[in-house]
Design brief:
A: alpha/beta; D-Maltodextrin-Binding Protein, domain 2; ten-stranded mixed sheet; two-stranded antiparallel sheet; 18 helices; 12 strands; 51% helix; 14% strand; B: MetI-like fold; MetI-like fold; 2 domains
C-alpha cells in the first residue's frame, strides 16, 4: 500500500517534469521580433497582437514575436524608457497622450517617422494638437478626459449624476468619489493640468484640496478607478479615458461617462523609440497601425479609431463588433464628428512642468490626506457653529474673521496645521469674544 | 572530517554567498547612496526617520502588526486548545480547513473577500434585500478589513504552533497544578500557556512580521501607507527619481532589519529559558479532555465560524471563476467557461511559466537542500551551524527585499536579470528554507547506523547516499518537494520586481488582471486554478503522510 502511494507520487512528479520538456527543446523557426512598451490597456494590446501577427504572416509569410510591457500608467512607462537610457528594451512607445511624447522627444528618446496613412489623421481638432508636425508622434486612438459614474449605485443612493467639476464638491458626494495619483496615471495628470489651465493655478489647487476631502480612497491607477466604479464599490470615478465607459458597458456594467464642462482631447499616440533593436519591424507595425485593417483592430481593442475615413456604421456591416458599441457610446458615426468644446491647452507649459505637478500633488495632498481631511472637517464644524451663533444674534465678528482666515490657510496656502489652529481659535473666540 | 565534506561545505557557502549574501549586501549598500552625487552617507536614513510621512508609515505598520498579533492570538489560543485537547468528531476536517490558508496565496483571500464583503458584495446585498440595513456597511476597506484579512491568513501559524505545544506538554505538570488546587482558567494561564511559549513565539513572530512583507493586500484595499506598499510604489513607479528609489530601498532595509531582529529576539528568548520537563510522560495524543455538552457546542460553533470564513475563499473564487459580470447580484447569474478558455487557450504562457519557474526552482532547491541537510545533520564541518542559520533567516526576510536586491545586483555587472533564469533563481533563494527544513528533519530521523553499515560493507559515500539514504529519506523529501513547489508556485512579492514581458506567472497574472482592467473574472479563475493545483499537491502530501503541518513548519523543531 505504502509502496503504491510512493510510486503514484513519483509518477506524478515525473509527469510534472515531462511538462517541461517541450520548453527545453530548441525553437527551430526563427521569428521576427518587435517590442512594445506603453500604458495601453490589455484589451488593446491583445487585439493589436492578434491583428499584427495575422498581417505579418500574410504579408511576409513569417511569424512575428511580440512582447508588450506595461509597467504602469503613462508616467511610469515614460520613466521606464528614461531608465533604459537610450538602449531600449522595446521598439515602439505605444499609447499615452501628447505631453508624455513631448517629454520623450525633448529628452531625445524617440525618433521621427511618418507612417503610411499618416495624412488620414487630422493635424489638429478644436484647437488641440492631434499629431506632431515633425512626425515624432502620431495619434492613433483619440479620446477625451471624462469622469465616470455607476448609474445603478447612484440611483440606489438617490444621488443625481454630478455634471460639472464643481458639482463634485457638493457634500452629498462625500465618500463616493475615487481617483488615482498623477504619478500613476496620465489621465489624472492631465486632469490636474486641465484644472490648472482652465481655472488658474491657485483655484485649481484649492479645488484639488477640496476634492481630496470628498474621496473615499485613492485608487492605484486609472483602470483601478474604472474597476471600482464598475463594481459599484465607489460610484463616481474622476479622470477617466472616455472609452472606459464604453468598454465597461460592453462587459455589462451599468457605467456611464460624463464630459465635464472643461476638458481636453488626449491624442493617444505612438512613436518609434531611439535605438530600437528591431527598427525595421517597428516601422512595418506603424504602417499597419494606421491602415484600415490596423484601425479596425484598434477599435476592437476598445479604443476609438483615429483615421478620418472611419465610419462606424460601415464597419458595423463588415462585422466589427465594437463599432456598434462605439456608435452608441459617442452618439456619432466617427470620433471626429463629436461636437465638443475644449479649453485652451498649452502643451509646452504642460510638458515643462510634468514632473513638478505630479510631485506637488503627491507631497501636498496625498501624503497629508489624513491631516487635510481633519483640518477641513474642523473648519466646516466651526463654520456651522459661527452661523448658529449669528442666528442667535451673538457677536461673531472676531470669530467670523478667524474662521475665514482658517479657510484661506486651508484652501490657498495648503497649510493644514495652521488652518486647524485658526479654526480652534475661532471656536474659542465664539465662546469668549 | 573528510576533504569531500569541506569541499561540499565550501560549494554550498559559495552558492549562499552568490545568491543570498551578495544581492542583500548590494541592497544595503545602495541604501547608503546619496542621489545626485557619488557620495555615501546616512542621509537617507536620517531623512526616513525625520520625514513625517515615512514615520507615519512605519508607525502604521507597527500598529497593524500589533493588531494582527492580538487578533490572531485571541482567536488562535482557544482554537488551538480545542483542536489539541478536546475529543470531538470531525477533528481532521476542521484542522485541515483552519490550516488551509497557509498554502493559499494571500491575494486569493483578498479578492474573495472583496467580492463577498465589498460595499456591493454578496453580504451587503443580502442584508439590504432582507432589509436589515439601508446603506451598505463598509466591512473591509480600512484598517479593520486589513486586520481581518491578514489575520485569517496568519491564524494557522498561531494555531499550528500552539496546538503542537498543547499536545506535547507533559500532563504531569497540569495534574500537579490540579492537585495543588489550581483549576480551570488559573491552571491554563499559569501552567499550560507559559509552557507553550516557545511554540507560540515561533508562530507569533511570523504573524507580527507579515505586515512588513505583505504589500499587495493594503494596495488592493486602498490603504497604501504601510512600509512594504510604500517601498513597492517608490521602487516600481519611479524609475528615474533616484532619490525616491533610494528611499524605497531604505524602507525595504528597515523592514528587513525589523524582521530579522524580531526573529532573532524570539529565538534568543526561547533558548534562554528552559521549557522542557524531565520526564517523557506524554502520550502521542497528549492530554485529551471530554468537554461538557455546552462547551462542546460552543467549540463547534467557534470552529465552524473560522472554517466557514476560510471556505469562503475557494467558494467565492469558484463562483466568480465560472461566471462573468457578477455585479449587484448576491450570486452570479451568468455562467460560463469563458474565463478558463482565455487562461488555458489564449494565454497558456502564464500557466506554463508558473510550472516552469517553480519546477526549475525546485530542482535548484533539491540540488542544494539535500547536500545541505546532509552537511548540517551528519558532519562536523565548521560553519555548518552558520549555514543553517542563514538559510533559516530567509523565513523572516521580506520577499520585496529579495526581489529588489536581485534587481539591483543582477542588472549591471552580472546581467542575470536579462534572462528568464533569474525568475527560478529568485524563487529558489526566496523559498530556500522550505525544502531544507523538511530534508533536515528526515535526516534527523534516519539512523546513521544504516549508512555506516553500508560504508563498512564497502560502498562509497555517494553510492551509500543513493542506495541507502535517499530511498529511506524519500518520504520526507517528497513532502518537502511538494511543499517547496506550492510555496514557489504562489510567490509574488519577489517575482513582481523581476518579471519582464513574457515571463508573467499566474500570481502576477492575477494581480495584473485584477487591477488593470475589467477582468476580475479572469483573475478569479486564475486564483481558483491555483487553489485547485495547490489542493491536488496537498492531497499528494497527505497521501505520502507528512502532513501539512510538518511540511510547513519543519518537524525538526519539535
Amino acid at each position: 500500500m505504502r509502496r503504491g502511494i510512493l510510486m503514484t507520487s513519483m509518477i506524478a512528479v515525473l509527469a510534472i517534469a515531462l511538462l517541461f520538456i517541450p520548453v527545453f527543446s530548441p525553437v527551430v523557426k526563427a521569428a521576427d521580433k518587435i517590442g512594445w512598451v506603453g500604458p495601453v490597456y490589455k484589451e488593446l494590446s491583445a487585439s493589436l497582437t492578434k491583428g499584427f501577427k495575422a498581417h505579418y504572416k500574410k504579408t511576409y509569410g513569417k511569424d512575428v514575436d511580440i512582447t508588450f510591457v506595461r509597467p504602469g500608467g503613462w508616467p511610469v512607462c515614460l520613466d521606464k524608457v528614461r531608465a533604459w537610457g537610450g538602449k531600449p528594451d522595446a521598439d515602439i512607445f505605444l499609447g499615452a497622450g501628447a505631453p508624455a511624447h513631448e517629454v520623450l522627444r525633448q529628452e531625445g528618446l524617440i525618433v521621427p517617422y511618418k507612417p503610411e496613412g499618416w495624412q488620414k489623421v487630422p493635424a489638429d481638432w478644436h484647437g488641440m494638437k492631434v499629431k506632431d508636425k515633425d512626425d515624432y508622434w502620431t495619434c492613433f486612438a483619440p479620446w477625451i478626459v471624462t469622469n465616470l459614474y455607476n448609474e445603478k449605485v447612484l440611483k440606489k443612493l438617490r444621488l443625481p449624476p454630478p455634471k460639472t467639476w464643481h458639482d463634485l464638491l457638493n457634500p452629498i458626494y462625500r465618500g463616493n468619489i475615487v481617483h488615482t495619483l498623477p504619478y500613476a496615471s496620465g489621465t489624472m495628470h492631465e486632469t490636474i493640468e486641465i484644472l490648472m489651465q482652465a481655472f488658474g493655478e491657485e483655484e485649481a489647487w484649492r479645488y484639488l484640496r477640496l476634492l481630496a476631502a470628498q474621496l473615499a480612497r485613492f485608487s492605484t491607477g486609472s483602470t483601478d478607478t474604472t474597476q471600482l466604479v464598475a463594481r459599484g464599490e465607489v460610484p463616481i470615478g474622476v479622470a477617466q479615458p472616455q472609452m472606459n465607459a464604453m468598454a465597461a458597458r460592453k462587459d455589462g456594467f451599468p457605467v456611464r461617462d460624463l464630459l465635464p464642462e472643461k476638458t481636453i482631447l488626449v491624442p493617444e499616440a505612438v512613436a518609434l523609440l531611439k535605438g530600437a533593436p528591431n527598427e525595421a519591424t517597428g516601422k512595418i507595425f506603424l504602417d499597419w497601425l494606421f491602415s484600415p485593417d490596423g484601425q479596425k483592430y484598434v477599435l476592437e481593442g476598445r479604443y476609438f479609431a483615429a483615421s478620418d475615413d472611419v465610419k462606424f456604421d460601415a464597419w458595423e456591416k463588415e462585422g466589427v463588433e465594437m463599432a456598434t458599441h462605439a456608435k452608441k457610446a459617442l452618439g456619432a458615426n466617427s470620433f471626429w464628428e463629436l461636437e465638443v468644446e475644449f479649453i485652451e491647452y498649452d502643451l509646452d507649459l504642460a510638458t515643462k512642468r510634468w514632473d513638478e505637478v505630479n510631485k506637488k500633488y503627491e507631497y501636498e495632498i496625498y501624503r497629508k490626506w489624513g491631516e487635510l481631511k481633519s483640518s477641513l472637517f474642523l473648519i466646516e464644524e466651526v463654520e456651522g457653529e459661527v452661523a448658529a451663533a449669528k442666528d442667535q444674534k451673538m457677536d461673531v465678528a472676531k470669530a467670523d474673521g478667524k474662521i475665514k482666515e482658517a479657510r484661506r490657510l486651508f484652501e490657498i496656502d495648503g497649510d493644514y496645521a495652521a488652518a486647524r489652529l485658526a479654526a480652534s481659535k475661532a471656536r474659542a473666540l465664539l465662546v469668549a469674544p | 572530517m573528510s576533504r569531500g565534506n569541506v569541499i561540499l561545505a565550501a560549494l554550498l557557502w559559495a552558492i549562499i554567498a552568490f545568491f543570498v549574501l551578495y544581492p542583500l549586501s548590494i541592497l544595503v549598500l545602495e541604501s547608503f547612496k546619496i542621489s545626485g552625487t557619488d557620495n555615501w552617507g546616512l542621509n537617507n536614513y536620517v531623512e526616513f526617520f525625520r520625514d513625517t510621512y515615512y514615520l507615519k508609515t512605519f508607525g502604521n505598520t507597527l500598529l497593524l502588526s500589533t493588531l494582527l498579533l492580538l487578533t490572531t492570538t485571541i482567536f488562535g489560543v482557544p482554537l488551538a486548545y480545542i483542536l489539541a485537547r478536546y475529543r470531538h468528531r470531525g477533528k481532521t476536517v476542521f484542522t485541515a480547513l483552519i490550516l488551509l490558508p497557509i498554502v493559499l496565496p494571500a491575494f486569493a483571500g483578498v479578492f474573495a473577500f472583496i467580492i463577498f464583503f465589498g460595499k456591493y458584495g454578496t453580504l451587503n446585498l443580502l442584508l439590504m434585500d432582507i432589509g436589515i440595513i439601508e446603506e451598505p456597511v463598509n466591512f473591509i476597506y480600512g484598517l479593520h478589513g486589513l486586520v481581518f484579512i491578514q489575520a485569517l491568513h496568519m491564524l494557522p501559524f498561531i494555531v499550528l504552533g500552539l496546538s503542537a505545544g498543547f499536545t506535547n506538554i507533559d500532563p504531569s505538570f497540569e495534574e500537579a497544578a490540579e492537585v495543588e488546587g489550581a483549576s480551570g482558567f488559573r491552571r491554563f494561564f499559569t501552567i499550560t500557556l507559559p509552557l507553550c511559549t516557545p511554540s507560540y513565539l515561533a508562530g507569533a513572530v511570523l504573524v507580527f512580521l507579515w505586515p512588513f512583507t505583505d504589500w499587495l493586500t493594503p494596495l488592493i484595499l486602498g490603504q497604501v501607507d504601510f512600509l512594504p506598499s510604500v517601498s513597492y510604489i517608490n521602487i516600481s513607479y519611479h524609475f528615474t527619481d533616484v532619490h525616491r528609489k533610494y528611499m524605497g530601498i531604505v524602507a525595504t532595509v528597515v523592514s528587513a532589519v525589523v524582521c530579522i531582529s524580531l526573529f532573532l529576539l524570539a529565538r534568543w528568548w526561547v533558548e534562554k529559558r528552559k521549557y522542557t520537563g524531565l520526564s517523557k510522560g506524554t502520550t502521542s495524543e497528549g492530554r485529551v479532555v471530554e468537554p461538557s455538552p455546552f462547551v462542546r457546542l460552543g467549540a463547534y460553533v467557534f470552529m465552524a465560524f473560522i472554517a466557514v470564513l476560510v471556505l469562503l475563499i475557494p467558494i467565492v473564487l469558484g463562483l466568480s471563476a465560472f461566471s462573468r459580470r457578477w455585479v449587484f447580484e448576491p450570486f452570479p447569474t451568468y455562467w460560463t467557461l469563458e474565463n478558463f478558455r482565455l487562461i488555458l487557450l489564449e494565454s497558456p504562457g502564464l500557466v506554463k511559466n508558473s510550472f516552469l519557474f517553480s519546477g526549475i526552482a525546485l530542482l535548484f532547491g533539491i540540488a542544494f537542500g539535500l547536500p545541505a541537510a546532509y552537511l548540517i545533520v551528519r558532519t562536523r564541518v565548521p560553519g555548518k551551524d552558520a549555514l543553517d542559520f542563514v538559510i533559516t533567516l530567509m523565513l523572516a526576510f521580506p520577499g520585496i527585499a529579495v526581489g529588489v536586491s536581485y534587481l539591483l545586483a543582477f542588472w549591471q555587472g552580472i546581467p542575470l536579470a536579462t534572462h528568464w533564469i533569474i525568475m527560478p533563481l529568485a524563487l529558489f533563494a526566496r523559498r530556500l528554507p522550505y525544502f531544507l527544513r523538511m530534508a533536515h528533519s528526515s535526516y534527523l530521523q534516519l539512523d546513521p547506523s544504516l549508512e555506516e553499515a553500508s560504508e563498512v560493507s564497502g560502498a562509497g559515500k555517494i553510492r551509500t547516499f543513493f542506495s541507502i539514504s535517499l530511498p529511506l529519506l524519500l518520504k520526507g523529501v517528497l513532502v518537502g518537494v511538494v511543499m517547496f513547489f506550492i510555496m514557489a508556485f504562489q510567490e509574488i512579492s519577489t517575482a513582481i520586481f523581476l518579471y519582464r514581458g513574457g515571463w508573467e506567472t499566474l500570481p502576477i497574472g492575477i494581480y495584473l488582471n485584477w487591477h488593470r482592467g475589467m477582468e476580475f473574472g479572469i483573475a478569479a479563475a486564475m486564483a481558483f486554478l491555483m487553489i485547485v493545483i495547490t489542493f491536488i499537491l496537498l492531497m499528494i502530501i497527505s497521501r505520502i503522510g507528512g502532513g501539512v503541518l510538518k511540511a510547513a513548519w519543519g518537524a525538526g523543531e519539535n
